[in-house]
What we know:
five-stranded mixed beta barrel, about 160 residues, mainly beta
Amino acid sequence: MNSVILIGRLARDPELSYTPNTQSAVCRFTIAVDRPRRQGEDQGADFIRITVWGRQAETCDRYLSKGRQVAVMGRIQTGSYKNREGVTVYTTDVVADRVEFLGSGNGGQGVSRDTFTGREPGFGSSMTQDTGFSAPQDAFTGFDDMPDTFQAAEDDIPF
Length: 159
């Protein structure tokens, strides 16, 4: 099984391009995912390259920007290429099946809302590529009164 779920923040703005033959949209971005912190150590992060295809790629390019928090579901894909010096470079990327927009869309200054739905971009919409992860639109009713952000508690959990 090749499955990965990541939560992190975009390290830079996404880059959208189209394949030459089929004109399929492809969006690439990098997210910073915090490493678990051990006592006495500084917080570290891994920078993971994400690739998104199709209509979801165009949506990511439109609504995501550097610093935005996202959850990504997908698979790991490895590859290699020869650089200009002829050295083989090995790559590891996550090909996303689903991208969920989390947190605030504008640096913590409130949620950026879609003008058509009044909801945060991507919320309640199908952000998948026919992978079976989407839910019917009416499954998201009743969430309009939920807070815009989650406040984490610093209490220790007893398990």
